[in-house]
Design brief:
31% of the residues lie in helices and 17% in strands. It has one domain: Rossmann fold, CATH 3.40.50. The protein is α/β, with parallel strands linked by helices and 241 residues long. Helix 1 packs across helix 2. The strands form 2 sheets. It has a 7-stranded parallel sheet with strand order 1-10-9-6-2-3-5. Strands 4-8-7 form a 3-stranded antiparallel sheet, with helices on one face. The longest helix has 18 residues. The chain binds fructose -6-phosphate. The site of fructose -6-phosphate (F6R) has 13 residues, from loops.
Amino acid sequence: MKILKAKDYDGMSRIAANIISAQVILKDNCVLGLATGSSPVGVYQRLIELCANGELDFSRVVTVNLDEYRGLPVTNEQSYRYFMNDNLFNHINIKPENTNVPNGTAPDPAAECARYENLIHALGGIDLQLLGIGNNGHIGFNEPSDAFDCDTHCVDLTESTIEANKRFFSNADEVPRQAYTMGMKAIMQARRIVMVVSGAAKAEIVKAAVCGPITPRVPASILQLHKDVTLVGDEAALSLL
Ligand code: F6R
């Protein structure tokens, strides 16, 4: 694992955006795996700037997002589709039909999971997967559990995740209790992984994921087995490494 330390959130965002930018320049029809949450917002802002300056062309890029809340329609501001449109897709020259997020309102969860898994497979897998890490070590919504889940699945969110994500909702009761998430297979088969981490609150879990035992109780620890992971963090998040 490569570990790149930036001074602050802005520095972290610039480094990660540069890596993604290099990927898009080297392979203009690459498949980017994308994440939501606070960590990648600065990365997306930088990618928007690069695209606006004419330095980056997303016209042939395809994206697959990690996850989506079950039950939220795309019009809901807390849905991850809305987040992606608002924070990235609406501001770059990507074709909307080339952007993929699990459908939170699909009537049949099993069919939606199978559709998403087949889609990733049909695209030939992911060239570069951008990840954040949850306070409990989750990646995507692969929550701590007794075993790693391989395929796209519908997951019951843990209390810790509901607690962490309630900041985006008016109260904890409004946070959906389930979500669709890409499984560990698609993440681990990504040819390159970039994880962004920021803030002192993430320092303990980053240490557990990077230096602790590989266990489904700390889902991100599985990344120790991947051959091309770059962890980009600010000083606070990397302070215990
Ligand atoms: C979101 C996702 C999650 C987040 C994680 C960290 O698509 O996959 O695993 O990366 O919950 O969230 P933030 O960045 O808000 O701390």
